[in-house]
Amino acid sequence: MTRKKKIVIALGVIFLLLLLFFLFWFLSRQKKSAASVVTPPVVQEQIPVAKPRNTEEKALPLYLNTEQTSSEISLQNLAQTFTERYGSYSNESDFANLYDVLDLMSATFRAETEQTIATAQVPDHYYGITTHVLSVKMDLMDETGGTAKATVNTQREEATKSIQNVQVRYQYLSLLFVKEQGIWKVDGAAWE
Fold this sequence. Notes:
- This protein is an alpha+beta fold.
- The chain has two domains: 1-33; 70-191, Nuclear Transport Factor 2, Chain: A (Roll).
- Helices cover 38% and strands 29% of the residues.
- Keywords: Membrane, Transmembrane, Transmembrane helix.
């Protein structure tokens, strides 16, 4: 084998080794960032709320209350999913937040929401709001009657005219639930 071929082969091997090194490095960074996204946040202290509803009974974060039935847990999960989607809006998304939760609504509430979408006015300037659930408190649950009520404590980040112009506020959302064909659905939502 000539000297020139040996140099070409050596450079090819070095190039392949460098390529493999960068590939493994890139994949390991991607796995670390994906793992950090999936990991739930650790709550070290309670974020202060605007006005406590009842000082005798405080709502616990979903994962701390261990004396719940599976129906209560299902309703709390439904309340959390619904609230974060329903309460997050951008005038650039064409009411995607409401379309996302239509299947979680009762037939009556769905019809009301579709009517709201059809007649709503979109602001001319940028407007967006992102909602995060802090806690869910079940106020009423009648499994046999198929009705329930929950109060959701939220933190909302509202941006007006620019995504840099953000204000944070704390707000409650009252949710009503009904069972339709054996499945819990949101039957009403009112911001307080």
